[in-house]
Write a structure and sequence with these properties.
mainly alpha, about 85% helix, 18 helices
Length: about 450
């Protein structure tokens, strides 16, 4: 088995792609954990407020992720085809959408942060802390809307090391500046939760500047705003047809996941604080499997763009085997981290009780998320099949998980842990349909076009 993996070019290629992506995801999780760990010394209210306010960043991340992976569907296949101009035009189209969403969220965070917080909690202290956090986060939303698309395009053409280096820069600065502004180091003001937002915005500004530097020396893909106005009816039509279902998929999933926080937020600050720690640990547990999904999607897209459909089908099978392994590893990571988290978390006795059992639930929840993410966001999107994931998650999250959570919490008034357990059945409910779609092979399509710029 070991020799077969070593001699198989698919495995060697995917491991080259996945390592930088894992480093990137690891640093992203490290920033989230640093926020929670540092705010742990400020107070439980700060942890809870930032956790709730961060749900908007989570939604926006899924918007950018959806646009980025939507662009990756086209860019990865056109890279396999060797059409660099089409990739540049797709990047411009994706930036139009991402900047539109970024402006919307930034404007809301700047002018209406209190209203945004009231959607998640009626606790006046959490609203005040969260509103100050959101105001300063508005700058980061704008920078993020540009960098996320550009880095996604770089990853789609195999430039994962450059993309990861940019994220390493941003995440490292974020952690350092968090400490400076939360605790008032080196003469800086001691800002607590507000310091987290200032650190994030400053690091995003520097990341954006670094992207412009990379673009200036790049020989292939530029961060060129002139392509925002580039017109190509066929590519725009393909982007809307293929990318918007991916975007819609990620939005409905992230908004539904935020509704979980709404439910938990109305069950008390103990539940919110415990969930804040759980999210951090789960993020670490899913790093490897989500990285595998991203790398696999890029590699399969390149192969499909070369019209090697049978090779892509065999590659998808190998990716699934790796996903099961990484999902199991993720569960072990969550289990191993549980005693450490319980030892150092400084929460109330009730919150610690919730935290222990929420972490245990996530030891198996990671596997459900790993399989679904690899297939829906990796394999299916590599073949241009984004609509299935949109329909599947819309039904699963909004017809099953969210209504069940509200019913369990506010009608049946079940205990917090039972509500959380029921919410965490969402990934497993959709397994039969997702696996059936995978086995059918209907996800496998070459979505590139010939003579794009002659016809336009």
């Amino acid at each position: 088995m070991k020799n077969r993996i070593q001699n198989d070019p698919f495995y060697s290629q995917i491991f080259k792609l996945v390592l930088p992506i894992i480093i990137q995801n690891l640093l992203s999780a490290a920033v989230s954990s640093a926020d929670v760990v540092m705010l742990n010394y400020v107070g439980q209210s700060s942890i809870s407020a930032v956790s709730l306010a961060s749900q908007y960043a989570n939604v926006l991340f899924m918007v950018f992720y959806g646009l980025g992976t939507g662009a990756t569907m086209l860019c990865a296949q056109y890279y396999g085809k060797g059409d660099m101009k089409a990739i540049q035009v797709v990047e411009g189209i994706a930036l139009r959408f991402s900047l539109g969403f970024a402006l919307l969220f930034a404007g809301a965070a700047l002018f209406f942060p209190e209203y945004m917080m009231r959607l998640f909690t009626n606790d006046s202290q959490l609203i005040v802390i969260g509103a100050s956090y959101l105001r300063f986060m508005s700058v980061s939303y704008l920078c993020w809307g540009i960098t996320e698309v550009y880095l996604a395009v770089l990853r789609s053409i195999g430039r994962v090391v450059i993309s990861t280096a940019m994220n390493v820069l941003a995440f490292s600065l974020n952690i350092i500046l968090n400490a400076v502004f939360i605790f008032g180091l080196f003469g800086a003001p001691k800002l607590g939760a507000m310091g987290v937002a200032i650190a994030t915005s400053a690091s995003r500004l520097i990341e954006l500047a670094a992207c412009f530097v990379v673009s200036a020396v790049s020989k292939d893909i530029k961060l060129d705003f002139r392509y925002l106005f580039s017109k190509n009816k066929l590519l725009f039509s393909d982007f809307v047809r293929l990318s918007l279902p991916a975007l819609g998929n990620d939005i409905i999933w992230s908004v539904a996941f935020s509704m979980y926080s709404v439910i938990m937020g109305h069950l008390g600050t103990d539940a919110v604080a415990a969930n804040s720690f759980v999210i951090v640990v789960r993020n670490f547990g899913t790093i490897l499997c989500f990285g595998m999904a991203s790398a696999g999607g890029i590699l399969l897209g390149n192969v499909i763009g070369q019209n090697k459909l049978e090779e892509a089908k065999a590659g998808a099978s190998k990716l699934m085997k790796l996903t099961v392994i990484t999902g199991a590893i993720g569960g072990v990571i969550v289990l191993a981290a549980t005693p450490l988290v319980l030892k150092y978390a400084t929460l109330s006795e009730q919150a610690m009780h919730y935290l222990k059992y929420m972490l245990l639930i996530n030891t198996y929840y990671v596997m459900g998320a790993a399989v679904n993410t690899t297939l829906i966001a990796g394999v299916f999107r590599a073949g241009g099949d984004s609509r299935f994931g949109f329909v599947c998650d819309a039904i699963d999250m909004w017809c099953y998980a969210v209504p069940l959570g509200f019913f369990a919490a506010f009608v049946l008034k079940l205990p917090v842990l039972w509500v959380y357990f029921l919410l965490c059945t969402d990934e497993f409910v959709k397994w039969p349909w997702v696996l059936r779609r995978y086995r059918s092979g209907r996800w496998l399509n070459n979505i590139t076009r010939d003579n794009l710029f002659i016809e336009n």
